[in-house]
Amino acid sequence: MEAVHEHGHDHHPSGLMRWVTTTNHKDIGTLYLWFSLIMFFFAGSLALGIRAELFQPGLQFLQPHTFNQLTTMHGLIMVFGAIMPAFVGFANWQVPLMIGAPDMALPRMNNWSFWLLPVAAILLIVSFFVPGGAAAGGWTMYPPLFIQGGISGDMTILAVHILGISSIMGSINIITTIMNMRAPGMTYMKMPLFVWTWFITAYLLVAVMPVLAGAVTMLLTDRHFDTHFFNAAGGGDPVMFQHIFWFFGHPEVYIMILPAFGIVSTIIPTFARKPLFGYASMVYATASIAILSFIVWAHHMYSVGMPTAAQLFFMYATMLIAVPTGVKVFNWLATMWQGAMTFETPMLFAVGFVALFTIGGFTGVVLAIVPVDIQLQDTYYVVAHFHYVLVSGSLFALFAGAYYWLPKWTGHMYNEAMGKWHFWLSVIGFNITFFPQHFLGLAGMPRRIPDYALQFADFNMISSVGGFIFGTTQLLFLIVVIKCIRGGASAGNKPWEGADTLEWTIPSPAPYHTFATPPVVK
Amino acid sequence: MTTEKSSTKYMVAKLLLLAVVMLAFTYAMVPIYKAACDAGWIDATRDNSANPYANVNANVDTSNTQVDKSRWITVEFVANTNAKMPWNFAAQQSSIRIHPGEMTNVVYDVVNTTDRETEGVAVPSYGPALAVEYFKKVECFCFTKQKLGPHESRGMPVVFVVTPDLPKDVNTITLSYTFFEVKS
Hints:
The complex is a heterodimer. By secondary structure, chain A is mostly helical. In chain A, about 70% of the residues lie in helices and about 0% in strands. Chain A has helices at about 15-20, 25-55, 65-100, 105-125, 145-150, 150-180, 195-225, 240-255, 260-270, 280-290, 310-335, 345-370, 370-375, 380-410, 415-440, 455-485. Chain B is α+β, with helices and mostly antiparallel strands. Chain B has one helix spanning about 1-40, and strands at about 75-80, 85-90, 95-100, 105-110, 120-125, 135-140, 145-150, 155-160, 170-180. In chain B, strands 3-1-9-5-7 form a five-stranded mixed beta sheet, with no helix packed on it. In chain B, strands 2-4-8-6 form a four-stranded antiparallel beta sheet, with no helix packed on it. The interface of A and B includes residues 168, 207, 211, 304 and 309 of A.
């Protein structure tokens, strides 16, 4: 810290008020990351409840209604409370640092968009304790079941509204920062890929979060204000909710994976010590995926009874997405090809991401095929598919990014041995949990059930064992992070030999104010 | 700095407008969805007989690739009641021309002419008798007890397919139902 003199004119409050009133992008990034880590552990423990119940057939620990609450809230909180805020946390920390900006464009709004999150989280968690328990109709909130639920349905709707407002404000902030505050010389096609992917993701968020807000508002007015958007008896149509929800939902899937692509595209060149292969094609592929995400929504609902022509359209459009995604996977492989690679923890998670995310991508292509999907709809095959893209995809990229930037954020190196243990136990636990679920789904086991037929017993037992390995392993990550904040070897400005983005030109830990004078990018 | 400030405001205004437009679009999806369903683009489950806007192409999924369009057969509908049965019983149409393999829906009307509740069972028969093997009924009121209150009337559907392997020399099939009263 000697190298950087604290600016004398800073008078920020200390203690709790520092965090409540902060407008500093690094503070807010830290808040987002801690919030999402806490939510990750909470929603993860709900998943362990699910796996405990499914360890054996029959009902051991949970009543079916409680079980349904766990699956619903696990999904809602992981998506809106853990994965999305974690990526926003990375954006807050890294976007200004990577484009050479002193802060986000709208620092006060930034503070507000974070502090809305705990309110929504409290609403969701408290809903477990109201009469009737938490929402239990699945994270997709399909009517008519959701409309018939108790007061927790209203709390969930309100929480989704708040989370949506937070996301829209955060995204407006990110877009404005990227458009207006790049350092001189940083043209669009020189931006690091993490910035590019977040730029596109932010546009997706501004475009589709209002759609989710509208959909849940319709649910709310159907519940309390005598509208009949989804009530067939009143001239509505429950299937329309699925169309609206997935019009939001499919872009949402890419909102959770595009920033992950950005993180991986930053880390792989660093540890392969080669520039990213096909930078421009990565940018165009990201944009193509984002645009295509608006015309594939009905592949989530092939079995509702669509004409063959519509099913074919959504099937071909969905398969088309495999093309830009394939471009990305091959670019990552080409970046690693003949590189001088080393495998520190960030690289391990990034390579694990490429391998396992691709499996999730392949099962996605399988599910895109209409006749196959009608067989597999709502089975464990689907559960396996989206956990391969969301856990070994989004979550692994988040871990990779955390290990990669922790030295910059804290000024200390993390414990490499513990990081490697974390990776290997995660990868093994993850595959033990979710690979057998492919077989369960192919054999016909439906998702969202607390009890199952006897022929599914063995694979469920394996899956539960894996789940507990994976779950407890994550405590290791918490320990690594706390140890890294408290001390460890000094990181220096640039702990990674192959890194070349702007954040590595400033000291570690990153000073409270950076790039007050914009750097010049050649 | 003023230019950056104002361009920030301009950006925020544009992005907020996008968010509001998308919210409005969500509500616009309600009429759009209805129109798309009426046009038969995304809803194959709609009963088109009740839908004046639907054209014949709309109901794509109920069409069947195994329809033998090369020949026609006539199905005649006969309705009888047993001599002691106080019901009026008649098919809404006396015959229909269809292709083998085509899913067909017809309705029989039945009226209880008495002042008391009556129960009846219908028994089908076919002419020629060999047609029974090729006449697949998906839905039928026969063999199950039907209960009609005093002067109650009811339309009873029969949904059937004549399988395409029907022998070539059969051009006409007669489906005949006879209602018997049963005492409960």
